Amino acid sequence: MKEAEIPRHVFEKMYEKDYCSQWMGIELLSIEEGRCELTMKVKKEMLNGFGILHGGIAYAFADSAFAFASNSYGRVAVSITGSMNFAKSAKLGDVIIAIAKPLNVTYKTADFDVNVYNEDRSELMYYFRGTVYRSSTEVLAKEI
Asked: With helix as H, strand as E and coil as C, how does the chain read?
Protein backbone atom coordinates (compact mmCIF):
# COMPACT_ATOMS: atom_id res chain seq x y z
CA MET A 1 0.00 0.00 0.00
CA LYS A 2 1.27 3.46 -0.89
CA GLU A 3 1.83 5.83 2.01
CA ALA A 4 -0.65 8.36 0.56
CA GLU A 5 -3.39 5.68 0.72
CA ILE A 6 -2.99 5.01 4.45
CA PRO A 7 -5.26 7.85 5.70
CA ARG A 8 -8.20 6.68 3.56
CA HIS A 9 -7.77 3.06 4.62
CA VAL A 10 -7.52 4.08 8.28
CA PHE A 11 -10.71 6.13 7.94
CA GLU A 12 -12.57 3.23 6.31
CA LYS A 13 -11.45 0.74 8.96
CA MET A 14 -12.39 3.04 11.83
CA TYR A 15 -15.69 4.20 10.31
CA GLU A 16 -16.82 0.62 9.69
CA LYS A 17 -17.34 0.16 13.45
CA ASP A 18 -17.86 3.81 14.45
CA TYR A 19 -21.59 3.45 15.01
CA CYS A 20 -21.90 6.90 16.60
CA SER A 21 -20.43 8.67 13.55
CA GLN A 22 -22.66 6.53 11.33
CA TRP A 23 -25.77 7.41 13.38
CA MET A 24 -24.90 11.10 13.16
CA GLY A 25 -24.72 10.78 9.37
CA ILE A 26 -21.13 11.98 9.22
CA GLU A 27 -19.64 11.91 5.73
CA LEU A 28 -16.01 12.25 4.72
CA LEU A 29 -15.11 15.21 2.52
CA SER A 30 -11.36 14.66 2.49
CA ILE A 31 -8.58 13.03 4.45
CA GLU A 32 -4.81 13.12 4.24
CA GLU A 33 -2.07 12.61 6.78
CA GLY A 34 -2.89 14.81 9.77
CA ARG A 35 -5.94 16.47 8.23
CA CYS A 36 -9.60 15.49 7.96
CA GLU A 37 -12.74 17.25 6.72
CA LEU A 38 -16.17 15.90 7.60
CA THR A 39 -19.73 17.07 7.02
CA MET A 40 -23.00 16.40 8.82
CA LYS A 41 -26.61 17.55 8.54
CA VAL A 42 -28.31 18.45 11.83
CA LYS A 43 -31.25 16.09 12.48
CA LYS A 44 -34.21 16.50 14.84
CA GLU A 45 -32.80 13.87 17.21
CA MET A 46 -29.70 16.03 17.68
CA LEU A 47 -31.52 19.08 19.07
CA ASN A 48 -31.67 20.13 22.70
CA GLY A 49 -34.70 21.65 24.46
CA PHE A 50 -34.03 25.04 22.87
CA GLY A 51 -34.13 23.71 19.32
CA ILE A 52 -30.38 24.04 18.73
CA LEU A 53 -27.70 21.41 18.22
CA HIS A 54 -27.01 19.66 21.52
CA GLY A 55 -23.54 20.53 22.81
CA GLY A 56 -22.65 16.88 23.22
CA ILE A 57 -23.46 16.19 19.58
CA ALA A 58 -21.42 19.22 18.46
CA TYR A 59 -18.52 17.90 20.56
CA ALA A 60 -18.94 14.37 19.15
CA PHE A 61 -18.83 15.74 15.59
CA ALA A 62 -15.58 17.63 16.24
CA ASP A 63 -14.21 14.65 18.16
CA SER A 64 -14.82 12.39 15.15
CA ALA A 65 -12.78 14.69 12.90
CA PHE A 66 -10.10 14.77 15.61
CA ALA A 67 -10.05 10.96 15.81
CA PHE A 68 -9.81 10.39 12.06
CA ALA A 69 -7.12 13.07 11.63
CA SER A 70 -5.00 11.91 14.55
CA ASN A 71 -5.12 8.27 13.41
CA SER A 72 -4.48 9.13 9.76
CA TYR A 73 -0.73 8.77 10.31
CA GLY A 74 -1.35 5.05 10.68
CA ARG A 75 -0.67 4.66 14.42
CA VAL A 76 -3.42 4.16 16.99
CA ALA A 77 -4.07 7.51 18.66
CA VAL A 78 -6.50 7.97 21.56
CA SER A 79 -7.73 11.19 23.09
CA ILE A 80 -6.28 12.29 26.43
CA THR A 81 -7.74 15.82 26.51
CA GLY A 82 -10.29 17.84 24.61
CA SER A 83 -12.18 21.08 25.03
CA MET A 84 -14.79 22.87 22.95
CA ASN A 85 -15.97 26.44 22.60
CA PHE A 86 -19.40 27.27 21.24
CA ALA A 87 -19.41 30.41 19.09
CA LYS A 88 -22.71 29.99 17.22
CA SER A 89 -25.47 27.38 17.40
CA ALA A 90 -26.44 25.07 14.56
CA LYS A 91 -30.14 24.44 13.96
CA LEU A 92 -32.32 21.76 12.39
CA GLY A 93 -31.35 21.18 8.77
CA ASP A 94 -28.04 23.03 8.97
CA VAL A 95 -25.11 21.36 7.25
CA ILE A 96 -21.88 21.80 9.17
CA ILE A 97 -18.27 21.05 8.27
CA ALA A 98 -15.47 20.02 10.65
CA ILE A 99 -11.86 20.63 9.66
CA ALA A 100 -9.18 18.98 11.80
CA LYS A 101 -5.54 20.08 11.51
CA PRO A 102 -2.43 19.17 13.51
CA LEU A 103 -0.71 21.78 15.67
CA ASN A 104 2.13 19.70 17.06
CA VAL A 105 2.96 16.03 16.45
CA THR A 106 5.58 14.18 18.46
CA TYR A 107 6.37 10.49 18.73
CA LYS A 108 4.02 9.98 21.71
CA THR A 109 1.50 12.85 21.56
CA ALA A 110 -0.17 15.17 19.09
CA ASP A 111 -2.28 18.33 19.43
CA PHE A 112 -5.05 19.19 16.98
CA ASP A 113 -7.48 22.00 16.31
CA VAL A 114 -10.89 21.27 14.86
CA ASN A 115 -12.93 24.17 13.53
CA VAL A 116 -16.60 23.60 12.73
CA TYR A 117 -18.12 25.91 10.12
CA ASN A 118 -21.47 26.43 8.46
CA GLU A 119 -21.98 24.88 5.03
CA ASP A 120 -20.32 27.65 3.01
CA ARG A 121 -17.50 27.95 5.57
CA SER A 122 -18.25 31.62 6.16
CA GLU A 123 -18.98 31.33 9.89
CA LEU A 124 -17.02 29.58 12.63
CA MET A 125 -19.60 27.86 14.82
CA TYR A 126 -17.57 25.68 17.19
CA TYR A 127 -13.89 25.24 17.88
CA PHE A 128 -12.22 22.30 19.54
CA ARG A 129 -8.68 21.58 20.69
CA GLY A 130 -7.48 18.15 21.75
CA THR A 131 -4.44 16.05 22.49
CA VAL A 132 -3.94 12.38 21.70
CA TYR A 133 -1.59 9.73 22.96
CA ARG A 134 0.04 8.00 19.96
CA SER A 135 0.75 4.32 20.54
CA SER A 136 3.20 2.30 18.47
CA THR A 137 0.40 -0.04 17.28
CA GLU A 138 -0.53 0.24 13.62
CA VAL A 139 -4.24 1.02 13.07
CA LEU A 140 -4.47 -1.22 10.03
CA ALA A 141 -2.88 -4.15 11.89
CA LYS A 142 -5.15 -3.78 14.95
CA GLU A 143 -8.29 -5.83 15.29
CA ILE A 144 -11.06 -3.31 15.92
From this structure: CCHHHHHHHHHHHHHHCCHHHHHHCCEEEEEECCEEEEEEECCHHHECCCCEECHHHHHHHHHHHHHHHHHCCCEEEEEEEEEEEECCCCECCCEEEEEEEEEEECCCEEEEEEEEEECCCCCEEEEEEEEEEEEEEEHHHCCC
